[in-house]
C-alpha cells in the first residue's frame, strides 16, 4: 500500500473518522452518525488538535480517508522521567481491511513515538477483540498489563 499518505487529521476528516469508529459492534453502540455531526465531535477534535501531546492521524488514499488512529504522548516520572506513547482508536475502513493498512499505520505510529523521544509505546484493546490482540502481538506488542475502566 505504497499509495497511502499518513497525516494529521483535519476537521474536514471528522465524518469519515466517526464513520470508522461506528463501523464495528462496539462502536455501533457508542457513536452517533446523525447529520450534521454532533457538536461534541467538533469540540473533541479541537481539544485534540490544539494539545501538543495529542496527534489524531488519518490514512488517505486517492483523496479518501481509509484509516485513523490517535497518539497520546505522556510525560511521566517513572522510568527516569520517560515519555511514553499510547496508540488508541485504531480503525480501518471496511473497503481497506485485509490489505496491510493496519500494520502500516501501527508501524508509522511507533516511528512517530520514537521520533518524539518515547521510550515505549503502548496500546489498549477491548478484551473482546481477540483478532486485534493477535494482530498487535504479530507487530511485536506483548500483553504485559491488565487494564481497568470505570464508566462515569
UniProtKB/TrEMBL annotation:
<keyword id="KW-0012">Acyltransferase</keyword>
<dbReference type="GO" id="GO:0016747">
    <property type="term" value="F:acyltransferase activity, transferring groups other than amino-acyl groups"/>
</dbReference>
<dbReference type="InterPro" id="IPR016181">
    <property type="entry name" value="Acyl_CoA_acyltransferase"/>
</dbReference>
<dbReference type="InterPro" id="IPR050832">
    <property type="entry name" value="Bact_Acetyltransf"/>
</dbReference>
<protein>
    <submittedName>
        <fullName>Sortase-like acyltransferase</fullName>
    </submittedName>
</protein>
<feature type="domain" description="N-acetyltransferase">
    <location>
        <begin position="4"/>
        <end position="152"/>
    </location>
</feature>
<keyword id="KW-0808">Transferase</keyword>
<dbReference type="Pfam" id="PF00583">
    <property type="entry name" value="Acetyltransf_1"/>
</dbReference>
<dbReference type="InterPro" id="IPR000182">
    <property type="entry name" value="GNAT_dom"/>
</dbReference>
Amino acid at each position: 500500500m505504497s499509495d497511502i499518505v499518513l497525516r494529521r487529521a483535519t476537521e474536514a476528516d471528522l465524518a469519515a473518522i466517526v464513520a470508522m469508529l461506528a463501523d464495528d459492534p462496539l462502536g455501533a453502540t457508542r457513536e452517533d452518525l446523525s447529520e450534521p455531526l454532533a457538536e461534541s465531535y467538533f469540540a473533541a477534535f479541537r481539544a485534540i488538535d490544539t494539545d501538543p501531546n495529542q496527534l489524531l492521524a488519518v490514512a488517505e488514499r486517492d483523496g479518501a480517508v481509509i484509516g485513523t488512529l490517535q497518539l497520546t504522548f505522556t510525560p511521566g516520572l517513572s522510568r527516569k522521567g520517560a515519555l511514553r506513547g499510547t496508540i488508541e482508536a485504531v480503525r480501518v475502513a471496511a473497503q481497506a481491511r485485509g490489505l496491510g493498512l493496519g500494520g502500516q499505520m501501527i508501524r508509522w505510529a511507533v516511528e512517530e513515538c520514537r521520533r518524539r523521544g518515547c521510550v515505549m509505546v503502548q496500546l489498549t484493546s477491548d478484551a473482546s477483540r481477540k483478532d486485534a490482540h493477535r494482530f498487535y502481538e504479530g507487530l511485536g506488542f506483548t500483553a504485559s498489563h491488565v487494564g481497568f475502566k470505570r464508566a462515569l
